[in-house]
Fold this sequence. Notes:
Helix content: 10-25%
CATH superfamily of the domain at 67-206: tt1808, chain A
Number of strands: 10
Strand content: 15-25%
Amino acid sequence: xxxxxxxxxxxxxxxxxxxxxxxxxxxxxxxxxxxxxxxxxxxxxxxxxxxxxxxxxxxxxxxxxxxxxxxxxxxxxxxxxxxxxxxxxxxxxxxxxxxxxxxxxxxxxxxxxxxxxxxxxxxxxxxxxxxxxxxxxxxxxxxxxxxxxxxxxxxxxxxxxxxxxxxxxxxxxxxxxxxxxxxxxxxxxxxxxxxxxxxxxxxxxxxxxxxxx
Length: 213
């Protein structure tokens, strides 16, 4: 009679990214999508990815939110939702992807929170909307480079955004950008021309968020 031996589970080692030389030798369609440099927005729409991602010249760049980032993102979106329930002038979105340049098939941007007016809302919400939102908000993470975030602000404004908020958790403040002005807010955030009557004391979104040591 054959001896029965308990089978031990065999762990599959994590897949290492292909080297640059290997990527050049392997047909693009055979590479994992996150390792390709020719991904289109249409492909990104159909992809199942572990977190929000943007396209930079055909390369996927993940936006992996840390817990503090996610807490502020959720609170800001909730405040906008509450305002829009009472003032139904548009839609608040969390990490929506936008075809910022409709003629650039390999570029997209995904603000942490966005507001889109009803008159600018897309016909098909399943697809990434074209152009920029009316309002884009980005929460600055410790590993974000300020110069790159300013470039992103310019992209939003150039493609039609009326206002951009850069939210600095550690400094407990927001830099507000419009086409004609830049100013700092440390107390109450407003947007009278875009969100009439909206007032957001910053203490309400930073409350319970611990400062780093």
